[in-house]
Write a structure and sequence with these properties.
It is a single chain. The chain is mainly alpha-helical. It has a single domain, classed as Arc Repressor Mutant, subunit A (Orthogonal Bundle). It is 53% helix and 5% strand. The longest helix has 26 residues.
Length: 88
């Protein structure tokens, strides 16, 4: 399943991920960076560990990377669950 993270995050930004039209065209990025969260998720999909990703982006604290990943998972899960419930 292919997710359009801009739509998923529209209006649901939290602590670690933001979407601002002035930053990367509004793509959801890790707060305080220009690193789109989908880049991080793709690196995880490719088999990179969190520590390996941190080595690629050492200016992003490890706990911030972890929090952003968790926030992405929570947002996608809650949106899909809400959609499934509304279709029932």
């Amino acid at each position: 399943m292919n997710f359009d993270l801009v739509k998923v995050y529209n209006g649901t930004m939290k602590k670690y991920i933001i979407s601002d039209p002035q930053i990367m065209g509004g793509a959801p990025v890790i707060k305080g960076t220009r690193i789109p969260i989908d880049v991080i998720l793709h690196r995880l999909k490719e088999g990179n560990s969190l520590k390996a990703i941190h080595k690629l982006y050492p200016w992003i604290a490890l706990d911030k990377l972890s929090g952003a990943i968790e926030e992405a998972i929570e947002t996608i899960t809650s949106r899909l669950h809400a959609k499934k419930v509304s279709q029932a």
